[in-house]
Amino acid sequence: MNEVGAGVAAVRVQGLWKRFGEQIAVAGIDLELPAGRFIGLVGPNGAGKTTTLSMVTGLLRPDQGTVEVAGHDVWRDPVAVKARIGVLPEGLRLFERLSGRELLAYTGRLRGLPGDEVDKRATQLLDVLGLAGAQHKLVVDYSTGMRKKIGLAAALLHNPEVLFLDEPFEGVDPVSAQTIRGVLERYTASGATVVFSSHVMELVESLCDWVAVMAAGRIRAHGPLAEVRGDAPSLQQAFLELVGAHGHDAGADLDWLGGVR
Ligand SMILES: Nc1ncnc2c1ncn2[C@@H]1O[C@H](COP(=O)(O)OP(=O)(O)OP(=O)(O)O)[C@@H](O)[C@H]1O
């Protein structure tokens, strides 16, 4: 059993703040994400999801507050944390002049894995993710969905305890989405934790067993999916009520818009 499976929260955030000039992106959040769950971080555009995930994964320094991942402080003990996490960030930058296979080989060696183990895992991941045929193609020539998949393979290669994914299904076709979903479900079934951000409520509802709802830099609700959904007929409905968008007449002022003159 991995370390976080033994009762330590996968992520513990306390009093986390981030401001960009006048804009408060994250306004003092406290959050504890349980280990071994499939966790969705949802919120409208600009809610602070990416900023939060960046601070939790050690990519962006908070103005205030602490973050622990798998029991280790992200900013005091970054090496311990980075060894235990995998990250698929938004707007992922990859080494474009490497092939998919080379990218995994490089990532594996950076992670300190032995060469033959990297080869074995890379072959399996490329196969499962449907990238075997494109493994010798340069990453620069990959499509958006292929980039997400090779990024996911790189994030999983060292078998992290906690995997953070920012919008992992954006630009991914339904067949690939199903594949990614299968890989992630298998991964969480073994006791690992997935934390992913998304706007797509149906996806979050069908994948996650635990959700945190963010709006305007704050956590509006968090807990097991059924608890957050409450009496609402769907997570989408509960979400609209939580973020205060319920009943908003989106088209009222656009009376000029439409094809008929
Ligand atoms: N580097 C930055 N400089 C200035 N403002 C920023 C920066 N990064 C984020 N912000 C602001 O912080 C707020 C939160 O942004 P963030 O990207 O975290 O939201 P998000 O929930 O991930 O949104 P989306 O779903 O649209 O990706 C927004 O108002 C955004 O404009």
UniProtKB/TrEMBL annotation:
Gene Ontology cellular component list: plasma membrane
Every ABC transporter domain range: 11-241
Subcellular localization: Cell membrane
Membrane topology designation: Peripheral membrane protein
InterPro entries per record: AAA+_ATPase, ABC_transporter-like_ATP-bd, ABC_transporter_ATP-binding, P-loop_NTPase
Keywords annotated in UniProt: Antibiotic resistance, ATP-binding, Nucleotide-binding, Transport
One of the record's GO molecular function terms: ATP hydrolysis activity
Pfam family, any one: ABC_tran
The keyword Transport is assigned to this record: yes
Example GO biological process: response to antibiotic
Protein name: ABC transporter ATP-binding protein
Provenance organism: Streptomyces colonosanans
